[in-house]
Structures are given as C-alpha cells and as structure tokens.
Amino acid sequence: MVNIVCYWTFLILVAVSKAQDNEETTAVAISSGDLTEDKCNTSRAGCCSELYIGEEEDLVKCFVIHSPKLPVDGDADIGKTLRFLSCFVECLYKQKKYIGKSDTINMKMVKLDAEKTFVDRPKEKDYHIAMFEFCRKDAVGVYNLLKASPGAKVLLKGACRPYLLMVFMCISDYHQKHECPYFRWEGTAKAGTKDMCENAKAECYQIDGITLPTKSPA
C-alpha cells in the first residue's frame, strides 16, 4: 500500500506551506516514571512532531476507493496528488456525515460523533470538538488565499471540495500549534521514540482511569 503520510507531507510542503504560519510548540521533556495528570495534558518531547491523519480504521475504506487516483511513482504532477487527497478527505467526511450545507463542516454531527467515539474519554471528546471548531474557521482563510492565487487555482482544478482538504490539513498539525495531550503522542521507529511514546501514552490513559483503546489488527 502506498504510504499516505508521504503524499500528505509532500502536499503540505509543496502546495500550501506558504499559506499557513509556522508556529512551534514547546515540548516538555518528561523522564520515565515522572508522569502526572498535568504532564499528560501537555506536549512531550519526541512525541508531537508527527502529522495526525486520523485512525487507520477510518482511513482504509476511503483510501482503497480513491487509490486509483494516486499518481504513479515518478509522476511529479502536484495537481494529481491534490485531486487524490481532496477526494480522499471528502470520502472520509462523508462517511462521518461531517459535511454540512455549502460544503461546510456540520458541527452538530462532529459533536454527535465525538460523543459516540469518545464516550468514556471526555478529554478526547472536548479536544476533537475544539479542533474542528478552530479548523473549520481557519480553513476559510487558507482556502481564500489559495483561490486568490492563479497557480493554486490551476492545481485545485478538478479537486473534490478543496475547502474540506484545508480543514483536514489544519487538523493534521493542530497538536503542533496548540496543546499536544497524551492521546496525540506518537513517536517513530526511525527517531527511536516509538516505544517511549506508546508506553507514556498508555501510562497516561491509566492515570486518567481509562482502558487503552485497542487498535484493529493489521
């Protein structure tokens, strides 16, 4: 399967990085065994640099549907990548019923979904709602900037509801520009932080008295 993160990173670097402010989040270095509820609610060194694109079980269906739109290896056509990503995001938000009138984000459905998904995890529920509330507004400005650019208009030609893609982009690095609580902690094997971040996240779930959500088997 094609690495979604590679395409997503490529899109951000090439297509829209100039349209957003690059803010840095100060990470808090926490030694093993020193976790508290307060420390679990803030950034952790080495665990907040990865983009967040959602849970795998939510992504697979739409990726399979739209994977034929992926440009072949070696194809440098950014427009094709944009068209794939925009249709992928549209599919993702359709299945969650997040799309409102005039291609807006339906916050009522976002809240209902959050209440169902995070029924026993109130911090994640509130974070999810606040994230969409912020990003649905932030995306308007970013999308307007892109529409005003002749080059961007060409790239967006044929894309599926580009505004929704801007929302998704905002969400992908929301934890880097705002607070990065434990349920957003993720490390990488390459950086040697994967196990550290997973173990710290599990410990924070225990501190909050929550059973760690299990992931679907690969």
Automatic annotation (TrEMBL):
**Its Gene Ontology molecular function terms?**
odorant binding
GO CC annotation, single: extracellular region
The protein's superkingdom reads Eukaryota
Localized where? Secreted
Keyword Transcription recorded:
no
Tell me, what is an example of a GO biological process annotation in this record?
Answer: sensory perception of chemical stimulus
**Keywords of this entry:** Secreted, Signal
Q: Does the keyword Secreted apply?
A: yes
As given in the record, the signal peptide range reads 1-19
Question: According to its UniProt record, which protein family does this protein belong to?
Answer: Belongs to the PBP/GOBP family.
Q: Tell me what this protein is called.
A: Odorant-binding protein 58d
Organism equals Drosophila melanogaster
Q: What is the lineage of its organism?
A: Eukaryota, Metazoa, Ecdysozoa, Arthropoda, Hexapoda
